Amino acid sequence: MGARVKVISEIEKIMSNIEQVRNIGVIAHVDHGKTTTSDTLLAGAGIISERVAGDALLLDYLNVEKEREMTVKAANASLYHEFNGKPYVINLIDTPGHVDFTGMVTRSLRVLDGGIVVVDSAEGVMTQTETVLRQALEERVKPVLYINKVDRLIKELKFGPQQIQERFVEIIKDVNNLIDMYAEPEFRNKWKINPAEGNVAFGSAKDKWALTVPDAAKKGITFQQIIDAYSSNNKDKVVELFKKAPIWDALLNMAVKFIPNPREAQKYRIPKIWKGNLDTDLGKAMMEADPNGPLVFYANAIKVEKAGIVATGRVFSGTLEPGKEVYIVSSDRSGRILQVSLYMGPFRELTNKIPAGNVGALMGIEGLKSGETLVELSYKSQAAPFEQLHYISEPVVTSAIEPAKLQDLPKMIDALKKLTLEDPNLVVKINEETGEYLISGMGQLHLEIAMWMLKELYGVEVKASPPIVVYRESVKQKSETFEGKSPNKHNRFYISVEPLNEETIELIHKGLVNEDQDPKDRAKILRDKAGWDYDEARKIWTIDENINIFIDATSGVQYLKEVKDTILGGFRIAVKEGPLAAEPVRGLKVLLHDAEIHEDPVHRGPGQIYPAVRNAIWAAMLTSKPTLLEPIQKLDIKVPMDYLSPVTAIITKKRGKVLDVKQVGMQVSVSAEIPVAESFDISQELRGSTAGKAFWGTEFSRWAPVPDSILEDLIKKIRDRKGLPPKPPKLEDLLGP
Amino acid sequence: MSKKVCSLLSGGKDSTYALHKAVEFGYEISCIVSIKPIRKDSYMFHFPMVELTSLQTESMGLRKVHHILSLSGEKEKEVEELYYELSRIKKENDFNTLVIGGIASQYQLNRFKILAEKLSIDLFDPQWGTNPEKYMYDLLDYNIHFIITQITTYGIPIEYLGIEINKEIIDRIIEFSKKYGFHAAFEGGEAETFVINAPLFRKGICIESYKKKISDFEYSLLLKNAYLCDNAKSTILNS
Q: What is the predicted ipTM?
């Protein structure tokens, strides 16, 4: 085997026959073998163009180690595979493996039709297996299963054939349970994993082999033979497994057989993932993946290269061609495609067209962000984005950074700009008072990766402050109505606040309720799913990005329309930095009950209305049990039975809670929650107290109120750090004497 | 016919400037009226502006024609009361024009128009409709020296309270007015000012006061002492 040399025209020909195209990705819990699986697939089934092959690069290319570096950075790799004598192009879209990249996982899932779920046989289904599979099912991405690291069952756990089989059954059962739980009813049964059908393979990606149950029978390979291969000291026996059952055969056969082609998939995926009207020409063309229809392209990955921005993504309808004018939906502007390229292996090669259903890349549109939808300009009126991507993670940790060498500042700013384009979950802000650059991510590791990328990819070394946990402010009960007076006393606003219920927060977080919705539709959803009063829900003026709602509950107030934007400006000031510790407010419902507004515009400017509205909201918050919310992390720890009590002790010490302990064979699986604020040295502590035998995964779980016992101290600490007076404002500071 | 005017004087930059303009136009100042509203928000009197206007009229040698009126300050009643008081003064000392210092408040202008109509006199409003940013610099060029005695808006820092306003501070105020959206000449009630020296003043006014925070976005000077002096000066005392 090894890389195949193809000319571009051969690949173009396969791509234009949609039945011979598949779009897949590999999804897994961290360290379960996602990267190894992707790399070995590429090594075996990669295609390279004559141009690259003709270069001296060919030798390097065949060197697996070099490829490894390649795939880590490639947004997509197109693989060539033959099945029953027919050629296929299989696009292997990179899904970031680290837990801290959950947001990017969601984005890549959108362009996949199928996912190879990789599970470490020794560890079984873990937190992130569940998270990513759940995300995949939400996007209607069909799973197949690869049970990896079978060698560990033999070498580490000394399992016999019976035990191995039992372990497989257990993993398949767990995966099927998740499908039962999270797949929509119409897919629940169709998508179940069934060993007899061959949509599950087992093997070792490191040793480059994989087998499905029907394959094993056909090839006459038994569990005992596999056990023997790994038990003997003869490495050739393992190599023989690879020769008989190379990983790419099993996995890519599964992809061809069980993952639908793009046309079949788009029929049921488009109604779920695209927001627009299916009865328009655009909608119809997408349902059919029609290469002759209007162009729709969804960019899932952005790379900033010397020559400009390269956007990799999927053509959902029409044909991607240089020279086409496109409309960029979410930023409401247009641009012209200059270059189009297809992937051969991990390399991009220029081409003239990429038809619907395929993955490719385009250049020429500056400022493009990942997650954008492009639509052929003449179809602008029918354009709609792919659903607003909602993330399971939120940025919760912030560091202030500065370049190690002052003269690197412009370079650092430039690099940060590129990083945030490539990873929108990374947020960079400038503190206007101090001029510091603040970088926020989804965990300490996420920030460490960002620093690493700054250094390795952009050559900027930075000094970073210790990471700071980001809090939110909220209230626990409903307030009275407060009068906010403008400083000139000519305007008055009567405002109360209350906490939003969990259902509402969830609906907004998932994007099911949002600012741009039709108010009637939105009110119906809020009434039916979150217990709102329909009339109140119809009066929503705004929903902000931190999940706060402003409602106009007034009637017949003169000049209200004229100052609506100014009032909302005051609302945004109030919730951008709350009264307790100047942290963003979350989950607040603000009701405007009545107002007196001066008839003369000069007396009701922002300088007057902002403070009036802010003061009333703050006063209302301060009297309705205000609290700080802290980010809570979910921990999934697997550890030998003997170490259960030290692990539990660490969790308790860190204000954590053990949610569940399950015994799986010889080990226990501990599911727990701890505050992110306490998590910075948890890796060391867990390793230290378990002789390095614990392995674990973390992910963002939820926002939770900090315990009352530490609230006051914490507020003081944050205020000190920000240079604010030690105590939050008093009511008379807000309402006047 | 030469104009005999009655000038409304609050003690702030706008009414002082309007009075100067009237004199520059050759009008005869036959009366000056300062209005003292009886208001519930007592903090308004931390800095008793109206009382201090008598120092200004004394300095201008116009003390004899200066009237301080107490009005209720209630929205509709106020105009009625002012009408009554002005017609009383007019009988004693006739005038045919009312001088006001408004810049942009249509609301106030409308009320004064009604008032003037009822009194059958003209309105003289030299600054009306002027560009507020340019106007702030014009005040300095005209040698109107003033301090801010009270801040009632989002966006003006407390540092500017009680210090004589110079060009640099006006640069900053204009910058802030754009950023935070208040009127650059404070016409929306964003701040009160007090004039401590002006071309018609024979002596300056010396002010000694404390700074006081009333609430967020509301700061006032707390007056300790004010007197006529050779070199006008505002001193902030440590509380």
A: 0.82
